[in-house]
Design a protein that fits this description.
The chain is of the alpha+beta class. The chain has seven helices and eleven strands. It has two domains: 185 residues, Nucleotide cyclase, GGDEF domain (Alpha-Beta Plaits); 83 residues, no CATH class. Strands 1, 2, 3, 4, 5, 6, 7 and 8 form an eight-stranded mixed sheet that branches. Strands 9-11-10 form a three-stranded antiparallel sheet, with helices on one face.
Length: 295
């Protein structure tokens, strides 16, 4: 029984698997050097699509890749990042298919992608040069979904689909029996984004921001008891402020004072409550700031 490494942890990850459809048959038609050139270029383009959206390539499997979103750095929108990377993979593969047909007279070149989100065991494995991996049912299902996806499509698991549904057009594909699993799993096809510039998912889980959310809720409670309060958020992009502000806004709607917190936005100032709060709330620039003058 192996000992657990002190840096091992359980954390949410969105796993992405992508591979070339029908790559085995390429070996019958092309020389080894041509197969390497054809597949190598496609894998490089798929990898670049993943890295464009801050994903991490965990492994290369000859004609495909395994990537993580959430390792080593977690973002609240990791499923969205993975979906956009998957769509980019399909796009670059379609472009590359024209090059493949022109260079090798091979038609129908395509790829397929599988996505799945859930808790994984993250840690180091290996010998002299260990690497970080995310293990568990989440990554296994992602690989199986990819193998069941039709050429040129993306199949997502249930939790990924739930997180993506406010932002992306999804098509239910029914349940699938997956190799190695006793229970069937539902799959959805990711068609594309609903619109440009969509708002973050309001109900998205928040990773690593429990202390901040707790402090915001505490301040809102103090305000509800009659004390005027203000707070500012400093942080890099994707630090969690949109979800925190929206969570505070929902709590504000329930506050007995009648004052309503609101998410900060870039652009023109906004003024809020016209109920029991005479001065309402607003926000500051350049730092998102929530204030209330009820007291």
């Amino acid at each position: 029984m192996g000992d657990r490494h002190p840096n091992d942890e359980i954390r949410p990850v969105t796993a992405l698997f992508a591979d070339i459809v029908g790559s085995t048959s390429l070996g019958e038609r092309l020389s080894p050097g041509e197969v390497k050139a054809l597949i190598g270029e496609c894998v490089s383009r798929m990898s670049a699509a993943v890295e464009e959206f801050s994903g991490t390539i965990q492994a290369y499997a000859g004609d495909g890749i395994c990537a993580y979103f959430g390792v080593p750095v977690a973002h609240e929108d990791d499923p969205e990042r993975a979906a956009r990377a998957a769509l980019k993979i399909l796009s670059v593969a379609r472009e590359y298919a024209h090059d493949v047909e022109a260079a090798w007279s091979i038609e129908g070149f395509d790829v397929r992608v599988g996505l799945n989100t859930g808790q994984t065991g993250v840690g180091l494995v290996g010998g002299a040069s260990p690497g970080t991996v995310a293990l568990g049912d989440t990554t296994n299902v992602a690989a199986r979904l990819e193998s069941r996806a039709q050429p040129g499509t993306i199949m997502a698991g249930p939790e990924t689909a739930r997180r993506l549904s406010p932002l992306f057009v999804l098509e239910p594909l029914g349940e699938f029996e997956l190799k190695g699993r006793t229970e069937p799993i539902a799959g959805w096809r990711v068609v594309g984004p609903r619109s440009q510039g969509a708002e973050p998912v309001v109900g998205a889980p928040l990773f690593g921001r429990e202390a901040e959310v707790g402090r915001l809720a505490e301040m809102l409670g103090e305000h509800a008891r009659g004390g005027g309060r203000s707070c500012s958020w400093w942080g890099r992009r994707a630090s969690g402020s949109p979800v925190c502000w929206r969570r505070l806004g929902r709590a504000g709607e329930r506050a007995s004072s009648g004052c309503r917190a609101a998410p900060p936005r870039t652009g023109r100032p906004r003024r809020g409550s016209r109920r029991s709060c005479g001065r309402g709330w607003g926000w500051g620039r350049p730092t998102p700031t929530w204030w209330c003058g009820c007291a």
